[in-house]
Amino acid sequence: MKSILMVVAAVGVMASGMAYAQSGAEVAKAKGCLNCHDMAVKKMGPSIKDIAAKFKDDKGAEAKLTANLKEGKGHPKSAASDAELKAALQYMLTAK
Ligand code: HEC
User: Fold this and answer.
1) Which pTM was predicted?
2) How far is CA 10 from CA 1, 4, 7, 17, 95, in A?
3) What residues does ligand 1 touch, defined as CB less than 6 Å away?
4) Over residues 27-40, mean pLDDT
C-alpha cells in the first residue's frame, strides 16, 4: 500500500515538473515561433537549421537575439517572456 502511494506521488511530481519546464520546441510552438520558422524550410522567417548554422560560432547569440526579439529590433516583436525566449532560442540555436 505504501509503495503504491509513493508511485502515485512520484508520477505527480514528474507531471507537474514537465508542465513547468516546457521544452524549447514546445515553447517555440506555443509562442508562435513555428508559424514563421520551420525546422528545415524557409517560411516567413529563415529555417531553424539556417538560424543554428548562422549563429553556431557566436557565443553571445542567445543574449543578443533575446534582446532583439523582445524589442522587436529587426524581428517581429515577440510577446514571450525572457524565460520562454531563452528556451525557444536554445532550441533553435542547438538544432541540427
Ligand atoms: C511573424 C513571423 C515571425 C514570428 C512569429 C517569429 N519570427 Fe523569427 N524571424 C522572422 C523573420 C521574418 C526573420 C528574418 C528577419 C531578418 O533577419 O531580417 C526572423 C528571424 C529570426 C531569427 C534570426 C535573427 C537573425 O538575426 O538572423 C531568430 C533567432 C528568430 N527569428 C527567432 C524567433 C523566435 C524564438 C520566435 C518565437 C518567440 C520567432 N522568431 C517568431 C519572422 C518571425
Assistant:
1) 0.84
2) 14, 10, 5, 11, 31
3) 28, 31-33, 35-37, 44-46, 51, 54, 65, 69, 74-76, 78, 80, 85, 88-89, 92
4) 96
